[in-house]
Design a protein that fits this description.
This protein is mainly β. The chain is 14% helix and 39% strand. It folds into two domains: 77 residues, Elongation Factor Tu (Ef-tu), domain 3 (Beta Barrel); 85 residues, Elongation Factor Tu (Ef-tu), domain 3. It is globular. The C terminus is likely disordered.
């Protein structure tokens, strides 16, 4: 589990195409400290498994499913990436509960610069709209953010100077893709309420077959 508090701005150093997958090599001195084979590291909000670690770099294999459902497929050598290690047991939950399982991608639509922060508007896939609410939490490229405004096909967030300086969101402009992960609690609540409604009207929940 992650919290959406980016630990460092890393960089892609190599991408190897493996047919139905890709192997990424990424530089991150902070997140590779003490890392070993099999550990997890979130890259732009996507939980990846460490294959190998050497000289402040780690490699990770990215399957076709992940490449298709996230923006990782657009990364190339030199691309900056947000990196975060899983939260240690007993650690502080600085952001919100983040699984590293991307629900979809959006695109930066607009940036409005203020004196001390920026307002960024991001497109929102139709199937995720119901999970995004004003003042709720959302993860954008692995960054835990608070929703300022939730529209039918977009949402806005405020970015403070620290976020602008220390994450990829400071450099992304209109048209650039971003990974989105909605609040997992909202998805569980929806599923539980759906099961209760199905039980009341006598029908089977979606994940069960009638008669089982």
């Amino acid at each position: 589990m992650f919290t959406g508090i980016v630990e460092e701005l890393g960089q892609v150093t190599a991408v190897e195409e493996l047919g139905d997958a890709s192997r990424f090599r990424l530089r991150g001195p902070v997140v590779t400290e003490g890392a070993k084979h099999g550990d997890s590291i979130a890259v732009n909000g996507v939980c990846l498994t460490v294959v190998d670690v050497a000289e402040h770099e780690f490699t990770a294999d990215v399957m076709a499913e992940t490449l298709n459902r996230s923006s990782l497929g657009a990364l190339a050598p030199g691309s900056p990436v947000n990196l975060e290690r899983p939260m240690a047991v007993g650690g502080r939950l600085g952001g919100h509960i983040v699984q590293g399982h991307v629900d979809g991608t959006g695109h930066i639509l607009e940036r409005k610069v203020s004196e001390h922060w920026e307002i960024v508007r991001v497109s929102l896939p139709a199937n995720l709209t119901r999970y995004v609410v004003e003042k709720g939490s959302i993860t954008v490229d692995g960054v835990s953010l608070t929703v300022v405004d939730a529209g039918p096909d977009h949402f806005t967030v405020s970015l403070i100077p620290t976020t602008l300086a220390l994450t990829t969101l400071g450099a992304k402009g209109p048209g650039d893709p971003v990974n989105l992960e909605v609040d997992v609690i909202a998805k569980y609540v929806e599923r539980l309420l759906g099961d209760r409604s199905a039980a009341r009207d006598g029908s089977a929940p979606e994940h069960e077959e009638p008669g089982r």
